[in-house]
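Here is one such protein, fold included:

. . .
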Amino acid sequence: MGIEVCWDQSAEQPAARIAAWRSMDAVTRGAKDEWLALFAVDAVVEDPVGPSMFDTEGKGHRGVEAISAFWDATIAHVQRFDFEIRDSHASGDGTEVANVGTITTYLPGNYRVDTVGVFVYRVGEDGLIRSMRAFWEPERAMATARQIDG
């Protein structure tokens, strides 16, 4: 339940890893305003990267207003999120991180979906997220959908 990470959160971490953790934490708590405050005004969210049911043109959700609308159309409908990050690879300067893991979502009607992917965050010098790119395949995620005991 919640966020399970493999890196030592008490040790000093690259800025992008900290931003990624804060993003996951805000999502698990349903803290939309906190989540939005993590993004630069011109940030882009691509979740998933490329054309999808959430972004038919595959250009991403650009700017805080579009990212807010993305939350309303997707994240807001999930009853619970569990993030399991199995590995995390930071760039040499710490401004980017690629997290490898599974996001488990619990949906209305007692459905559970596991999304395995690579989640890439890039931050600016101010620590704000400039881009979040989630590499996952909707068909693979939907193949895991199953009803669970309520």
Q: What stands out?
A: The chain has one domain: 13-147.
